[in-house]
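Human: I'm a chemist; would you kindly supply sequence and structure tokens for a protein?

Assistant:
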Amino acid sequence: MPQSEMPTMRSRRLGAELRRLRSEAGLKVNDAALALECGQPKISQIETGKRGIRQLDLTTLLNLYGVEDDRQRTNLKRLARDIHKVDWWSGQGPLLSDDLRDYLTLEADSSLVRSFEPSVLPGLLQTEAYMREIFTVGAEADRVEPLVKTRMRRKDLLDGPAEFRLRVVIDTPALHRIPGPRELIRQQFEYLMESGELPNVTIQVLPLDITLPLAQYAPYTLFTMRGEPPVQVAWLEHMTGGTLLEQRPDVEMYAKSWDDLTAAALSPAQSRRYISDRIKQESGS
């Protein structure tokens, strides 16, 4: 990957981790530059994700920073290699925003994705008709088809890596705000039922008669990245894109919120019954 195409989500993650390790070792940028026999700007570019790093240089820095855990070293070396990985969405052109590309990278690199949705259904569990209704209203006309194709392609994750797991909590209002004709709504509920039967998918419905702090009702996703030791990050959705949170206190706050949400939500079995009842209601029976 040319340096001009950086930073990417992976290069930023690697750079942030190397910066953290250097700081915890009590070393300055100049110390790393001396170890690699290079200028300080190169170290700064690596730590900001603006350039990659050779495996030999990475090994030198890990030794300098006192990283002895073999799993951690292997994980960082894999991430350094993956910076140059060409993903299936790489050739989608400018119609896919940088935020969406970042999200796709996080999703593809995760072993576990936990998502809370208060207003819409999770993207991986949407039918094509449902997502088309959403994109037609909320996106420019020339972006609808690329966005639909991209979201449909994401579904390969559910049938792909054996270690990929998806857990979602859906707030009840999202199940009553499905746009389109009754047939579309019924098909979307049936798809939720089918998806919930997959061994790597867990669906829980958050009922209306629960009391939780209002701050927990913003949509967010927790990603547990592959590798040892596992790394967790939080992604917040907003009207103009998304924001990545990597600092441990921030991520722990959302992880605690997730525990509260799953404890308050209906069990997976109860959630299936709730969705089944919604199918009956939309079928007029």
